[in-house]
Write a structure and sequence with these properties.
2 helices
Length: 61
């Protein structure tokens, strides 16, 4: 199954509490922090809610 790498590129300051909690739920702890997840609909939905704060790269393998 494909994987995605999610990297935070913008600060969550002045964004809603739900968006901050979504970053925490994905496992991102700091600016420029990255995590790798399986490409699943639930993860994609979380990423789509905070797409303005992160970048997404698809990883083969």
């Amino acid at each position: 199954m494909a994987k995605i790498k999610v990297t935070q590129v913008r600060s969550a300051i002045d964004y809603s509490f739900k968006q901050k909690r979504t970053l925490v739920a994905l496992g991102i702890k700091k600016m420029n922090g990255s995590v790798i997840h399986e490409d699943q609909p639930a993860i994609r939905g979380m990423v789509n809610k905070i797409i303005h704060l992160v970048t997404v790269e698809e990883i083969e393998g």
